[in-house]
Amino acid sequence: MGYDLSRPVPPPQRRRWVPEHLRWPIGFALAALAVFFLHYYASRLGADGFLQTWLPRASLNEALVWVICALGLNIVVGYAGLLDLGFVAFWAIGGYTAAWLMSAFFYQIRVHLLGSVPTNQPGIHFSFWMVLVAGAALCFVFGVIIGAPTLRLRSDYLALVTLGFGEIIPQVFRNGDNVFGFNLSNGDKSITPVDPIYSVAIEANGLSIRNLGPFDLLSKYLIFVALAALIIFISLRLREGKLGRAWLAIREDEVAASAMGVPLMRTKLAAYGIGAVAGGIGGVAYATHVNGAFAGTFRFSISITLLAMVVLGGMGNVWGVTLGALILAWVNSTGLPQFGNAFNAQFGTEINFTSYNFLLFGGALVLMMLFKREGFLPESRTRLVLREHEKTAVGQDAIEVDELDEQVERAAAGEGSDRR
């Protein structure tokens, strides 16, 4: 039996140093470490002026909180296909959980459990790491409670119900200073300060274990990176598991998924609950970042911004959502204001670019939906579906044009025979 010399021999595949499934995790880790060392050595050398202007540490930490919450929303919207317009509710619940369990707000009692403050202070003082678990658990319960009334709803009706919950819960906290005579949230006066994080601190002479103050932003950056990496890991593992495949089946066709034996109620509630866990962790981290729980910060625009991060980054793609959250958070907090300052200084104008934030943001959304609907880094399944629809539409148009030409030719032939 000889070889078929006419058959082309495929070129040998090049051996890759990094497996494909590890490229993005390694890239995320290297980027996070690069930013850390860049800030660390620049501050020690006194040459961090540019970084503090265009890449401040506070904005980095806040951007990581946005990443955590956007990944939670991606589980609900990107994986399960359930439109959620009230995700800010879980952010608020997580923030107030930290405020209740890490402050002297409930001064009537004195409970200390591995807290970072002296035991003679009033209030509830738990460790930050315990509060993360408590915030995640409480948000899981509320996620199931909020998701239960939406099990029979789809599309616009589902969006309206989640929008209602997203408006109710922040209003409860805003007006919670007198709930049947009990002060639940201190109203617009907010709850501040919260206890510092007891963790490893980065100092000039090395590492030490102590309470992280408001200016230990570099140490908090490592904590927020670890939390974001944890949510990324959970999202990726869920995506490849049985539950993730059930979510994708519901997203593609709920009726077909139910016919194939996917339990709709349990699977949908799992999506709401697990997504809410990420929102709770992000809320606890945000409370320690801003040193309190402020009722006025939990606005409806947060839910819309999170949804835009998921859609623009690439719905269903963990790394696309992470990239979209980092870019949009940086533009909102630092990029647009600094660009406006540089532009005004260069051309002698006085344009307030931050006041046009939503105008520019809306224009970017329109352009993305027109020219790149699948997002920056789309999921492979979503990209194929959108391109297939485009090809089908183009083919349908071509068929309609051919049929129209045939009708015109038949009409012309009919007119010629009538004249004869």
UniProtKB/TrEMBL annotation:
InterPro entries: ABC_transp_permease, LivM-like. This is Amino acid/amide ABC transporter membrane protein 2, HAAT family. CDD domains: TM_PBP1_LivM_like. The chain crosses the membrane at residues 22-42, 63-82, 88-107, 128-148, 221-238, 306-331, 351-371. It comes from the Bacteria. It comes from Micromonospora rhizosphaerae. Keywords: Cell membrane, Membrane, Transmembrane, Transmembrane helix. One of its GO terms (molecular function) is branched-chain amino acid transmembrane transporter activity. It holds the Pfam family BPD_transp_2.
